[in-house]
Design goal:
Length: 286
């Protein structure tokens, strides 16, 4: 489609006297992963509920695939996939039955559930009732369920929460594949490394306000140090030094560092997304 897949323009929402979302604006393009980052209570879930039609914005406009989300539009809903943190699966059904039931809500009868379960590492659990699933298995099934309708917009709320490293890697690969297919992905996560790896851009939200929307690379260059950290072994001890990249003698110092007999590592000193978030908002992401 031409234009953004997700548009949020001056959106606000209040729970009674508490303003949870305060006039935020951002866009997500088709094929883009936007990491939506902030601590608990920052306004992430409220924003997603507005975009998925569960809450009406008090002011501003939100659009998905060019349509106002305040309209009850079945055509738009058929093109949205959601994976919420709450595991609202049918425990008495098998993994395969859960997917087929959800597909039927979209009017779909020929969904390849075996392929979906294989993508999330549950191919051998297709006929197992969800009641016997671990937390991680349920999370993977939730992700598979979000894909039954081949959505063009994906809302993923902590999709790797509770997963082991192998399963987390599989889900990250799946997210990248969906973005390459052309789906717009709004991703919330507390894992800053994951956000850095997956996101084309990130949006920092805290106490209902957006503090930044930019690429991880631009944010790290803007807020990080122009320096490299060198670790060498001297007299049996590991010594760490920082070499500024803007100094007059940078070239000589780097040459000496690389030539050092006890050189162990040399790498740039970059600000992490978490450090940048704390700089901007004064609080962490927990």
């Amino acid at each position: 489609m031409a234009g953004p897949a997700i548009e949020v323009d001056g959106v606000s929402y209040s729970y009674g006297d508490r303003e949870a979302v305060k006039g935020i604006s951002f866009e997500v393009a088709p094929g883009e992963v936007l990491g939506f980052l902030g601590p608990n209570g920052a306004g992430k879930s409220t924003t997603i509920k507005i975009l998925t039609g569960q809450l009406p914005a008090k002011s501003g406009v939100a659009r998905v695939l060019g349509r106002d989300v305040r309209r009850d539009d079945p055509e738009t809903q058929r093109q949205i996939g959601v994976c919420f943190e709450e595991k609202n699966l049918y425990e008495g059904m098998t993994a395969d039955e859960n997917l087929r039931f959800f597909a039927a809500l979209f009017g779909l009868r020929d969904v390849d559930t075996a392929a979906l379960l294989d993508r999330v590492g549950l191919a051998d659990r297709a006929k197992t009732r969800v009641a016997g699933f671990s937390k991680g298995m349920r999370q993977r099934l939730m992700v598979a369920r979000a894909l039954v309708n081949r959505p063009m917009v994906l809302f993923l709320d902590e999709p790797t929460d509770g997963l082991d490293p192998v399963s987390s890697k599989a889900i990250r690969t799946l997210i990248e594949e969906e973005a390459r297919r052309g789906a717009a992905v709004l991703l919330t996560t507390h894992d800053m490394w994951e956000a850095d790896e997956l996101s084309h851009r990130v949006a920092f939200i805290n106490e209902g306000r957006l503090y930044a929307v930019d690429t991880p690379e631009n944010l790290k260059l803007r807020h990080g140090k122009r320096s490299v950290k060198v670790r060498v072994r001297e007299h049996g001890e590991v010594v760490e030094r920082s070499v500024a990249l803007d100094a007059d003698d940078t070239g000589e110092r780097l040459k000496d560092a690389v030539a050092a007999e006890g050189l162990l590592t040399i790498h740039t000193e970059e600000a992490t997304l978490e450090n940048i978030f704390i700089q901007m908002t004064g609080r962490g992401l927990d």
